[in-house]
From TrEMBL:
Record region (Disordered): 278-322
Designated name of the protein: Uncharacterized protein
Lineage: Bacteria, Pseudomonadati, Bacteroidota, Cytophagia, Cytophagales
Biased composition (Low complexity): 280-296
């Protein structure tokens, strides 16, 4: 083949590969790092309770990210091995001296291990120069000095046996234009052994982190925890931030974040920590929640609360039984665990139901139990349930949550419809009163007998309210209302002195033009000579009685630095607003539960138990009223009794074998085991648990609302509750089992009925069948509920493709006994067919089609009619294309035709495609997702920084620019310098309760293109191409209201000026490198565009930035280098505030020359020329502002490694400006400088005094034209541990 033809073919192949990269994608969240998640299959050895494996990857594996089926995997750093601990299949023989029995297990033959990797391999060799240039002959002249000091760490205090990291810093800042500030920071981590048996773990810090970790990952890095933990084989002690969780107890459930101390004492032989959820006496301070870092008291994982499987108690008893000899007597070996804990609780528990919106994934805002609109969720305290199933947090899993705004958003895995059932348990921050918490528990085991007792109390201190100001009138009101907390309402107006920094009101007389009645109302204060009132308004719902105020939409009022409410007169006596000038007074609570229980293991499979509890609830500690209640539960659990034929051996008294015989049933029941349970539960009318202890859908399954006594305002009437449960079933494995359960419940005046549950599974050859049936007949108050629901599914697993069919129905009729007034909570039937791959297939896929038909009562409430039909298509695909491509797709389409709404078509999907070609030099990563969500309307306000934190703000008040004698939002500007005088305020977003349904589109693409490494040493055109590198990045996240399907799918369909575009975050960046790694000459060309549009309550705010930058660098000599940079940029700001709008065109030219004769000293000289011009004409009578800046600067730096570093900079800036200096655009152009001659300088000294002790001195000076010199000095000392 001729050489030109071969060259043309190679070029064509290269272009094809580059073009293919355009369609490649990776699973990326917009603005996040490229996805690094990988998964591999690991074989599970048979007849072993531990699976050990090693992950061989070309990149560094993050050990904490390794998980399987949502559970973390243990890692041994010394051997680089991972271990999976399975529940033990060994059971001690009931006959003394017999070998242990091994139960059949349902473990898979292999498990899918998922993990994340770093973008580099830390253990790989790295070098910045060709190895051929290394002079190895000089090694002979350097004597070997040993390895003694290679691992020594700089530190002042030596603590043998305890590893410590961190620092202690103390600093001071002062100047002639600011006050004196003192800064302090302590971060210290300790881990090691104090003695042979006492281990120490500690994290100590004096920094108060005002925010929480993001809730978009399964595991949270809670960096604000402070704790000290001491552990011993027989005791454990933790002080600081502690997570308290209950040990196994039926009535007492809690999960609390506290600041305090907790200790445990262990006596006797302890259960190994691998027992997990079944451990009655857990090992000390073993983390049980994989999603939390930091200390927590060890308790089992949350147990199954599903009433269909009454094995919660049985699981605990049977697991404990395996840890004790089966032949032990009643009072055999003693073991005990005692816990004592006390502290201050960080939050309150709440359980709320979220109303879903058809086809909207979120965000859904969580509210407090008493109607609090804006709460802060404590990190990792939430438990989210969808249709009764517990979900997993994480961007790649089921949902993400913003803890600071209490907003919940579901991923594309689950399509949220109006039929979805959303329930969330959580703890929310509440510092109205200081809440103390006390907990005592003792668990004792004596052979077959186990007893336990618990005491728990959390109480608010009515005399200590950190964030709540109560006067004498408020306290008197709280004492009068007793426990009727719905009456804790006080007037919201308070007479104050005039302050221009606050939004104040004036009280005026208003006469209704229709009724001629007069009343006092509040209007925005505009005259400082009149009476001023600080008024607090409460959202009571649209049209509520007395709700006569709304948020002002007047642009003049909305510009105020704070929310402005205005009065709206009632129409015909009906209120038209949603706010009342009042404030709700929280009441201090007192909750207490004392519980006790005992269980006796009759044999290895049968356990009888009893649980008792007593509670006390005081909804208002200002009042002496309180309520007390009791609860009781008694029953038995039979778990794992063999039904099939078994061989039992018998021995003589001296231990010699006598004979063996076959016992049990044979035939079809071979291998099956019997399980059964019976329990009776009674709760008195005033029993109030700490947290929810029943199944999340317990009350729904009885066709009633929440029946648990709570601390919410307007709670349900307390009633006695009687529940009797009985279940029986047999099981061989998950594919062969049957279980029946019946429940009888009587709650006077609310529920009286019977439930029947039937579940079964059978596998015949390759055919798997499953089914469930639920029947309820109950009187719910004055109505009769007849409920039947079930599911039947079948699938065939004999071929490479697994087909299946499922039928589901839910038919609940609630009506009066006479048959009139029919209502229905849920009435539908659904057909589903699917095709899926085998579990062990390399390419995984699944195709689903469902057809659902819903019915609803007719207008006369006598019969049912069709409500709507929905068809849903869903497809999933995960595969690896060759060795260099990964593909993942998920797509859902739903077509809903309903009687009460227009036809809705929903598109939901996401995908990822990663490609790596040309020896890794071509990397293409693409992510794309579409969904339907909501966009909140935001508001913002500027608040001054607290005392002692001056200089940490982001904005400053520029003065009364509009001359209205009031601080307005448009008068606050971003700080241009680090001076404290320009950092006096922070911008805080206020989230409103107004949402706009929007279609979301997220697109992210990254292309990195370079020549293969082997081309760098070539002599032809390959060497020329090897000099170029290209990196392109596109990130886009937008929300629109356009219902056009093609426009919703196209990520580039809208511009910022489009009215249908609600919000936008867009970043485009492309960089072309020439001789990127060449030390002599190199060049860069960068083109960047960023656009951001935010939806506000008063309108929108848009910020655009487009820039082009060229950078050239050239090494003139060994010690002389030069750089030349040129930039053109356009910065635009558009908002509903006219004074803040501008379009700034800017040109920059910056040559630089550096001289470095040695590794100690460097001298740099630079010239920077900048021109700025405003091109947006706001007022035709005013000229466009412009400025020219010429800056000449010199910098010198002296650095002695390990000793000191001295650096100094001096700059002369000549500023030419035309325009109004004190306008927004003028301040934006000048950036804290003044027209004329400006001089700036700084000096920094870093000195190492001794090992681990450093001191830093810094001095900054600035001389604006026509103003006095501004001096700022800082000094800081740091100790490294």
């Amino acid at each position: 083949m001729p050489h030109p033809l071969r060259l043309a073919i190679r070029l064509l192949l290269l272009l094809l590969l580059m073009g293919a990269g355009v369609g490649v994608r990776a699973q990326l969240r917009p603005g996040a790092v490229p996805s690094s998640r990988r998964c591999v299959w690991v074989r599970v050895p048979a007849r072993r309770d531990t699976t050990t494996f090693r992950l061989n990857d070309t990149l560094t594996v993050v050990p904490s990210s390794v998980s399987t089926d949502g559970r973390s995997v243990a890692y041994d750093a010394r051997t680089d091995l991972y271990r999976i601990y399975w529940p033990s299949s060994r059971v001690e023989s009931p006959e003394p001296g017999e070998p242990d029995l091994r139960l059949p297990t349902n473990r898979p033959d292999s498990v899918l291990i998922c993990y994340r990797v770093l973008p580099v391999r830390l253990a790989a060799p790295r070098y910045r120069r060709p190895r051929s240039l290394m002079d190895s002959s000089s090694f002979q002249s350097q004597p070997f000095r040993g390895y003694a000091d290679l691992g020594r760490q700089e530190q002042i205090l030596s603590t043998p046996g305890v590893n410590k990291t961190g620092s202690l810093t103390r600093g001071i800042s002062f100047g002639n234009a600011q006050n004196v500030f003192v800064n302090s920071a302590l971060n210290l981590q300790l881990e090691g052994k104090l003695t042979d048996k006492i281990n120490l773990t500690a994290a100590i810090s004096d920094q108060n982190v005002p925010f929480q970790p993001e809730g978009n990952t399964q595991q949270l890095q809670e960096f604000d925890r402070i704790f000290i933990t001491l552990t011993h084989p027989h005791w454990a002690l933790t002080a600081g931030d502690v997570v308290l969780r209950n040990k196994p107890d039926y009535f007492l459930r809690f999960y609390k974040n506290v600041q305090g101390a907790a200790g445990e004492l262990f006596l006797g032989q302890q259960v190994n920590s691998s027992v997990g959820a079944g451990a009655l006496l857990p090992s000390p301070l073993t983390p049980t929640n994989p999603g939390t870092t930091g200390p927590q008291l060890p308790v089992p994982s949350p147990q199954t609360l599903d009433p269909r499987y009454p094995t919660e108690r049985g699981a605990t008893r049977s697991a404990t039984a395996t840890a004790t000899q089966a032949g032990s007597s009643i009072f055999g070996p003693l073991r005990s665990s005692t816990t004592v804990a006390a502290g201050v609780a960080k939050g309150k528990f709440a359980s709320t139901t979220v109303e879903p919106i058809e086809n909207v994934q979120g965000p859904y805002r969580l509210r407090g139990p008493n109607g609090e609109q804006f709460i802060i969720i404590l990190a990792n305290s939430e438990r989210v349930y969808l249709d009764g199933r517990l979900l997993t947090r994480g961007f790649d899993n089921d949902y993400i949550i913003d803890y600071n705004t209490a907003e919940l958003t579901f991923s594309s895995r689950h399509l949220i419809t109006r039929n979805s059932r959303l329930r969330v348990d959580y703890e929310y921050s509440d510092f109205n009163y200081a809440r103390s918490l006390y907990h005592l528990s003792h668990y004792q085991e004596a052979g077959r007998l186990q007893v336990h007792a618990n005491y728990y109390r959390e109480a608010d201190n009515p005399d200590n309210s950190p964030n709540l100001a109560l006067d004498d009138d408020d306290r008197a009101l709280l004492r009068r209302i007793g426990d009727n907390v719905s009456l804790a309402v006080a007037p919201g107006a308070d007479s104050v002195a005039y302050d221009r920094r606050q939004v104040l009101y004036n009280r005026v007389r208003f006469t209704d033009p229709v009724t001629q009645q007069t009343r006092w109302i509040y209007t925005l204060l505009t005259d400082s000579t009149r009476g001023a009132y600080n008024v607090r308004f409460t959202d009571v719902g649209q049209g509520a009685e007395g709700a006569d105020y709304v948020l002002s939409t007047d642009p003049a009022k909305a510009n105020a630095n704070g929310r402005v409410y205005e009065y709206v007169a009632p129409n015909g006596g009906v209120s038209r607003g949603r706010y009342r000038p009042e404030r709700l007074l929280p009441t201090p609570l007192d909750k207490q539960v004392i519980s006790a229980g005992a269980s006796y293991r009759v044999d290895s499979t049968l356990t009888v138990f009893v649980d008792l509890a007593s509670s006390k609830l005081d909804l208002n500690r200002f009042s002496p009223e309180s309520s007390q209640g009791q609860a009781m539960r008694v029953g038995y659990v039979l778990e794992g009794r063999p039904l099939g034929a078994d061989v039992r051996s018998y021995r003589l008294a001296d231990g010699r074998p006598a004979y063996a015989r076959r016992t049990g049933l044979g035939g079809h029941w071979q291998g099956y085991r019997l399980r059964s349970a019976l329990d009776y539960e009674y709760t008195s009318r005033s029993f109030a648990p700490i947290d929810r202890y029943r199944d999340i859908e317990f009350d729904r399954n009885w066709s009633t609302g929440a029946t648990q006594q709570s601390n919410a305002t307007g709670g349900r009437i307390s009633r006695e509750d009687n529940i009797l449960n009985f279940s029986v079933g047999v099981a061989k494995d998950p594919n062969n089992a049957v279980n029946y359960r019946v429940s009888r419940r009587y709650r006077a005046g609310e529920v009286s009925g019977i439930q029947h549950w039937l579940d079964g599974a059978q596998k015949v050859g390759d055919l798997e069948m499953r089914g469930s049936l639920f029947i309820l007949g109950a009187d719910a108050g004055r109505r009769r509920s007849t409920w039947t629901r079930g599911e039947a599914a079948v699938r065939y697993t004999g071929g490479p493709v697994v087909p299946g069919y499922a039928y589901r129905f839910d038919k609940n009729r609630v009506r009066l006994p006479s048959g009139d007034s029919l209502s229905s909570a849920n009435y539908f039937d659904e057909h589903a067919v699917f095709l899926t791959s085998q579990d062990s297939a390399k390419t995984k896929y699944r195709l689903d089609y469902t057809y659902r038909r819903d019915q609803t009562p007719t207008a006369d409430l006598r019969s049912l009619q069709r409500r709507g039909t929905a068809q849903t298509w869903q497809g999933q695909l995960t595969t690896r294309l060759g060795k260099n491509q990964d593909l993942s797709l998920l797509a859902t389409y739903r077509d809903l035709a309903a009687r009460d709404s227009a036809r809705q078509r929903t598109v939901l999907g996401q995908g990822a495609w990663n490609v790596s070609l040309l020896q890794g030099q071509l990397r293409s990563e693409l992510a794309y997702s579409v969904a339907t969500g909501r966009e909140p309307k935001r508001d913002y306000v500027f608040i001054p920084v607290p005392n002692g934190q001056q200089g940490q703000g982001t904005h400053y008040y520029a003065g009364d620019l509009n001359n209205n004698n009031r601080q307005d939002k448009e008068e606050f500007l971003e700080a241009a310098t680090p001076d404290a005088v320009y950092r006096t305020h922070i911008k805080v977003f206020l989230f409103t309760d107004s949402y706009v349904t929007a279609f979301t589109n997220r697109f992210s693409y990254r292309l990195s293109l370079g020549a293969p490494r082997s081309w760098r040493d070539a002599k032809n055109w390959r060497a020329t191409l090897a000099r170029f590198n290209v990196i392109n990045t596109v990130t886009l996240d937008r929300r629109t209201t356009d219902k056009d399907l093609l426009a919703r799918l196209n990520p580039f369909a809208y511009q910022t000026a489009d009215d249908q575009l609600l919000s936008l975050s867009k970043v485009l960046r492309s960089t072309l490198y020439f001789n990127r790694s060449n030390p002599i000459f190199g060049a860069e060309l960068t083109v960047q565009q960023s656009q951001q549009k935010t939806l506000l309550a008063q309108g929108s705010e848009t910020r655009n930035l487009a820039s082009q930058n060229v950078l050239l660098r050239r090494t003139l000599a060994t010690a002389l280098t030069s750089r030349l940079g040129a930039t053109r940029s356009i910065r635009e700001n558009l908002s509903y505030l006219p004074l803040r709008n501008f379009r700034l065109e800017q040109y920059e030219l910056q040559p630089e020359l550096s001289y470095q004769p040695s590794g100690v000293w460097r001298f740099t000289g630079a010239y920077h020329h900048t021109t700025k011009r405003n091109t947006l004409q706001l007022d035709p009578n005013e000229p466009l502002a412009r400025g020219a800046f010429d800056e000449l600067s010199v910098e010198t730096r002296i650095s002695q490694v390990g000793k000191r570093t001295l650096s100094g900079t001096a700059s002369y800036v000549r500023v030419g400006f035309k325009g109004v200096e004190n306008s927004v655009i003028g301040l934006e152009i000048l950036q804290a400088l003044r027209p004329g001659n400006n001089v700036t300088w700084n000096l920094n000294v870093e000195q190492r005094l001794s090992n681990g002790l450093n001191i830093t001195l810094s001095y900054d000076g600035r001389k604006p034209d026509g103003l006095r010199v501004i001096h700022t000095g800082r000094m800081q000392a740091a100790v490294l541990f």
